[in-house]
Design brief:
Shape: globular
CATH superfamily of the largest domain: Calycin beta-barrel core domain
CATH architecture of the largest domain: Beta Barrel
Number of strands: 11
Strand order of the largest sheet: 6-5-4-3-2-1-11-10-9-8-7
Structural class: alpha+beta
Number of helices: 3
Helix content: 25-40%
Largest sheet: 11 strands, antiparallel
Radius of gyration: 28 Å
Order of helices and strands: HHHEEEEEEEEEEE
CATH class of the largest domain: Mainly Beta
Strand content: over 45%
Length: 221
């Protein structure tokens, strides 16, 4: 007959082993739960930053960067579009910023003055927030058949779309995969030879990660 003291002596070791297994199991569940929560938070931020009304999204972001030298009808089409910036504009804007702390959204009103001819355009925007204001210069120009952005830097643009009322392009700096800015300009409500409405959208990335987006809705005065 077995000695009862033997069972008593091995019982604590069994309990210790069982406790270790349960502890490891709980740690695994906690790790998986934490990882799931982080993924859900990241997905929620991506959904907010990925509002399709704010920027073109992943398919636009992944388009190849290509310099396009415009000739003939396409060059004439861009020349007509650059002239559309002329005049006084007023409207509203929204700005989204993404960071590790979360996503912030700001609304502002816009007063803008534009100048343009067949080779260059300039739009000066005065943005008024609930608290404070700022001024932004938006410049495009055509040189040797290439569309460029900001005269002082002579940045070449990757042109992805150009038709009678829409222009889409990207600007890259710091190498092929570092800083990307994507722009979309669309004119609408044409009366005679002039469009009465203009919408400008941009989204900016660093190493493929979305940092923010902005949209300006303007009406000609």
């Amino acid at each position: 007959m077995a000695n009862p003291r033997f069972f008593i002596s091995i019982l604590p070791s069994h309990l210790s082993l069982l406790s270790g297994l349960l502890s490891n199991l709980l740690l695994g569940l906690v790790f998986r739960s934490t990882l799931l929560c982080l993924l859900l938070v990241m997905q929620a931020q991506a959904n907010l930053c990925g509002d399709p009304d704010m920027y073109r999204g992943g398919s636009y972001h992944n388009q190849p960067f290509a310099l396009v030298k415009l000739k003939g009808a396409k060059e004439a089409q861009l020349e007509l579009m650059l002239k559309q910036f002329n005049g006084q504009w007023r409207g509203d804007g929204v700005e989204i910023r993404c960071s590790k702390k979360g996503t912030g959204k700001s609304l502002f009103s816009i007063e803008a003055s534009g100048e343009g001819d067949k080779t260059e355009s300039e739009l000066r925007l005065h943005k008024k927030y609930k608290e404070g204001s700022s001024t932004v210069m938006f410049e495009l120009f055509l040189k040797d058949g290439l569309l460029r952005h900001k005269r002082e830097s002579y940045s070449d643009l990757g042109l992805s779309k150009l038709d009678k009322n829409t222009l889409e392009f990207s600007v890259r700096s710091g190498g092929r995969t570092r800083w990307h800015t994507y722009w979309r300009i669309q004119f609408s409500n044409k009366v005679g030879s002039r469009y009465k409405k203009m919408k400008i959208e941009k989204s900016f990335y660093n190493k493929g990660g979305l940092l923010g987006a902005e949209s300006w809705d303007l009406k000609r005065l």
